[in-house]
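quick one before i forget lol
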Amino acid sequence: MNLEEAFLFIIEVVGTIAFAISGIRLAAYKNFDLFGAYTIGLVTATGGGTLRDMMLNLPVFWLQNPIYLAVTGLSLAIVIIFRRMLVSHNRLLFTFDAIGLALFVVIGIQKTLAAGYPMWAAVIMGMVTGSFGGIVRDILINEEPLFFRKDIYATACLAGGAVYWLIDVAGGSTVLQQAVCAATVIGLRVCALYFNWALPVLTYDVKKEQISDKAKIDNPEDLGDDLKE
């Protein structure tokens, strides 16, 4: 293992711990048992990388090395020991989630490029690696996935990937690309929290449509040609 591979491995382990803690913390809040909490933590930490490897036709990373199972167990122990602090503070969940998201975006980009795919594909795979585990986590704990809400989440992943791409075009070092990419993702998530940044929401006024439909039923002559057949 060369220096770059060792650095990426460390990033992946740290990201696994961060994402696993965020998943286990939510499972504890929902009163899951220990096995259920461990499962949620593992899915959160490995879901994105699993989908990435399957899409890139690569061996699934956590099936090649049991350390990811052990790291998830360590994360569970951390939540058990510091449960009072971790479960009751939403900002800590946000912190772990943001760190895991940023590091996994970097990992996703690096692994995609190493597999010989172009940069645009690497940016997409970075988003998949960072966000898909959280989608599965939210579905399993019966929450609306954060990915589909108005929060700056997937957008932060894409922005981080775009910055990575720009620095690569400018001739910046790999370490600089990784650092600025991660900082961009975390920075956007923090700004979204403190300044209430959000994407426009696609809305549909259900009540207005219900009133309109009721008026048509009460006044069938207003239906026009819809009923004249």
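fyi DSSP finds nine helices and no strands in the chain.
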